[in-house]
């Protein structure tokens, strides 16, 4: 498995989040002012969208800072999963601050008294400026994902699916939703302007709410899986399995457990059936050597535990079968 460059870690993720934070803060102010001037529900929903995104970036910065702390006695496997926790809160923020307000504005406009639109040109100008600014943040997130995908020899979508760094995925989905939301708001304001009916403005606001709810659910599902304890990258698992199987002292890999304990940090537990002819001292040296070789080949391995076991142990076999199904031990 290709090694990840240092730049794919916290440094570039921090740059991506900081850029998104600055952009969203500026856009939130512009949209709020334009929403008050135009009286557009879609514009106010977009203002809430940008406010939610701004809170989200603040939570992601907290995630990056706190997840980088070193392991200690209380947390021997480190604080890597803090990134997943704060990213989960970011997903909740998108739904509560953005989607709920957009739904409120949409229902109020669709089912309430008709509203007149004022100064729609202001709305068009603000949306155009916001689209340009959001494109800058979106382009940075896309560059980071493409670089990571290229380093790991994956497609763009596959990298997003298996990545254990939720920050860049959150920013990319946020910015993508922001661009789509701006187009929806433009359509709502434009149709209101052309037809004189505020119904279109309300429909656009409801669609923005649906968009934000889908993004929030997607991000929450991703971080839920990482918090529960997701298996490491399948490429890494297969590579480690092959290297353990090929070790001269190992007769068979009985079981292999991995878990992402942070971004680019993996916990590995392997149960191995060693050659019965090995003496105790030889077995100890073999474990030390295998551990060192695995860490050299895969720097993301944070902790490695190797357990000698007989493959004929029926209790162990039953546990492995219960987890994986009918596999050969």
Automatic annotation (TrEMBL):
Domain Cation efflux protein transmembrane: 17-227
Record key words, sorted: Membrane, Transmembrane, Transmembrane helix, Transport
The name this protein goes by in its record: Cation diffusion facilitator family transporter
Topology term for the membrane: Multi-pass membrane protein
Gene3D superfamilies: Cation efflux protein transmembrane domain
Regions that span the bilayer: 15-37, 84-104, 124-142, 171-191, 203-220
Entry's localization field: Membrane
């Amino acid at each position: 498995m290709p090694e990840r460059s240092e730049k794919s870690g916290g440094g570039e993720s921090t740059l991506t989040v900081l850029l998104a934070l600055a952009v969203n803060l500026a856009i939130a102010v512009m949209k709020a002012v334009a929403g008050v001037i135009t009286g557009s529900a879609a514009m106010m929903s977009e203002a809430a969208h940008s406010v939610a995104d701004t809170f989200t970036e603040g939570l992601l910065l907290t995630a990056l800072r706190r997840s980088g702390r070193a392991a200690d006695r209380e947390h021997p496997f480190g604080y890597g999963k803090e990134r997943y926790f704060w990213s989960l809160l970011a997903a909740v923020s998108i739904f509560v601050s953005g989607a709920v307000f957009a739904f409120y504005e949409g229902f109020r406009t669709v089912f309430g008294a008709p509203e007149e639109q004022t100064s729609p040109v202001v709305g068009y100008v603000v949306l155009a400026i916001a689209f340009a600014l959001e494109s800058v943040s979106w382009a940075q997130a896309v560059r980071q994902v493409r670089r990571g995908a290229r380093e790991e020899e994956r497609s763009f979508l596959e990298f997003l699916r298996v990545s254990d760094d939720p920050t860049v995925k959150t920013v990319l989905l946020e910015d993508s939703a922001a661009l789509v939301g701006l187009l929806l708001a433009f359509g709502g304001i434009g149709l209101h302007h052309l037809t004189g009916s505020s119904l279109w403005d309300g429909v656009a606001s409801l669609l923005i709410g649906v968009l934000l709810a889908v993004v929030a659910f997607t991000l929450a599902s991703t971080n839920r899986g990482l918090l529960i304890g997701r298996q490491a990258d399948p490429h890494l698992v297969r590579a480690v399995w092959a290297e353990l199987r090929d070790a001269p002292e190992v007769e068979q890999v009985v079981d292999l457990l991995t878990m992402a304990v942070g971004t680019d940090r993996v916990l590995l537990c392997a149960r191995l059936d060693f050659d019965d002819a090995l003496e105790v001292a030889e077995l100890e040296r073999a474990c030390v050597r295998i551990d060192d070789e695995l860490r050299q080949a895969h720097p993301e391995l944070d902790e490695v535990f190797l357990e000698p076991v007989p493959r004929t142990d029926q209790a162990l076999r039953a546990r492995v079968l219960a987890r994986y199904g009918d596999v050969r031990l």
